[in-house]
Amino acid sequence: MITAARAAAVRRDAGLYGYERALERIGLAPVAGADEAGRGACAGPLVVAAAVLATSRRAEVPDLADSKLLTPLVREQVYDAVVTRAVAWSVVIVPPDEVDRRGLHVTNVEAMRRALARLELTPGYVLTDGFPIAGLGVPGLAMWKGDRVAACIAAASVIAKVTRDRIMVELHEKWPGYDFASHKGYVTPEHQQALHRHGPSPIHRRSYVNVARAMGENGHVVLEETG
């Protein structure tokens, strides 16, 4: 048994919706989940999403899982199902200069608060992936690998990931020299080579060591769109 809150207990075989159903049984519904995409990227925005799902069997989202475990095609299909079936959902997009100015963790926590505040209903309980979010005014639980064990967090992870991937594909059209459409701003050998060759673009995070190093070596930043 895994204790969720108060007297609620979740069986290990309860499935992805086990936490929400256990919390609902003791009067802590609706249960919201929050997760982010782009935390480890050195370019592009940080995207945070929140979601509340219906807990009935009939309303379950087919193929819902941690966004990182889904193929791009399936992830898009799950995204469409999530935004259609969710009781409520929201998304917050944080530009890279704000991540640089305030710091990644502070920005991440504040964006989760904003995403939860934007929901069309007030959660009775909040589940977050990885670390706790204080100051919500409702109880909550931070879950290790929460996007693999709680449906609402998995749904938030899919919303955040698909939203961010779409943004990075659009940004690829402005700065094709970095191939953002392929690596989505994460550090890969190809991305690192482009970064050293061209210098940072306006959407690179200057506070990241590899970006700062490339800027120092290259001596400039890209100010204009390339094509």
Summarize the SSE layout with pairings:
Layout: E1 2-5, E2 8-10, H1 18-25, E3 31-37, E4 46-52, H2 72-85, E5 88-94, H3 96-102, H4 104-117, E6 125-129, E7 140-143, H5 151-174, H6 180-183, H7 189-198, H8 209-218
Parallel strand pairs: 3-6, 6-7
Antiparallel strand pairs: 1-2, 3-4, 4-5
Helix pairs in contact: 2-5, 3-4, 7-8
What helical percentage do the residues reach? 40-55%
- At the first level of CATH, the class of the largest domain is Alpha Beta
CATH architecture of the largest domain: 2-Layer Sandwich
Shape: elongated
Rg from Cα: 19 Å
The chain-level mean pLDDT equals: 90
Write out the strand line-up for the largest beta sheet, numbering strands in chain order: 5-4-3-6-7
Parts with pLDDT < 50 across at least 5 consecutive residues: 1-6, 219-227
Top keywords for this entry?
227 residues; alpha/beta; Nucleotidyltransferase, domain 5; two-stranded antiparallel sheet; disordered N terminus
Concise account of the structure shown:
This protein is an alpha/beta fold and 227 residues long. It has helices at residues 18-25, 72-85, 96-102, 104-117, 151-174, 180-183, 189-198, 209-218; strands spanning 2-5, 8-10, 31-37, 46-52, 88-94, 125-129, 140-143.
Write up what this structure looks like.
This protein has helices at 18-25, 72-85, 96-102, 104-117, 151-174, 180-183, 189-198, 209-218, and strands at 2-5, 8-10, 31-37, 46-52, 88-94, 125-129, 140-143. A hairpin with an 8-residue loop joins strand 3 (31-37) and strand 4 (46-52). The protein is of the alpha/beta class. It has 2 domains: 2-170, Nucleotidyltransferase, domain 5 (2-Layer Sandwich); 172-218, no CATH class. The protein is elongated and about 60 Å long.
